[in-house]
Amino acid sequence: MVLSSVNKMKVFQLVFSDPGRSFYSSGDKLSGSVQLEAAHTCRVTGLSVTAAGCAHVDHRGGKNRRSRSQEVEYLKYEEELRLEEQLSRDSDGCFLLQPGKTYSFQFGFELPAPG
């Protein structure tokens, strides 16, 4: 999301569908919504959810006190949220967030299965 000016958001939060859940594992479906409320009329060009994950392992020790590390990227997901379902566009093609109204945009994806 690119804002036309700074500090125009009163609410900008990510809400998961299962708020009582503290972690997710491979193969789980992750879903929720992005909630926005503007303090003043706000123009946005788009909104996307990006999830990235990696595993990083460090091994230190041995007789030579060498350090080894390895990192593997296991998730790269991006979803462009559909703003046109709730928002109108201005003459420049930007979406308008009106103050005093909370907007909610849904997202969802599945974490990669093991193996």
Ranges where pLDDT stays below 50 over 5 or more residues in a row are none
Residue share in helix: under 10%
What can be said about the biggest beta sheet?
3 strands, antiparallel
SSE order, as H and E? EEEEEEE
Number of strands: 7
Strand order of the largest sheet: 1-2-7
* Helix-strand makeup class: mainly beta
Proportion of residues in extended strands: over 45%
What does this structure look like?
- There is one protein chain.
- The protein is an all-beta fold and 115 residues long.
- It has no helices and 7 strands.
- The chain has strands at 9-16, 29-38, 42-44, 48-61, 66-80, 95-97, 102-110.
- The protein has a 3-stranded antiparallel sheet with strand order 1-2-7, with no helix packed on it. Strands 3-6 form a two-stranded antiparallel ribbon. Strands 4-5 form a two-stranded antiparallel sheet.
- A hairpin with a 4-residue loop joins β4 (48-61) and β5 (66-80).
- 5% of the residues are buried.
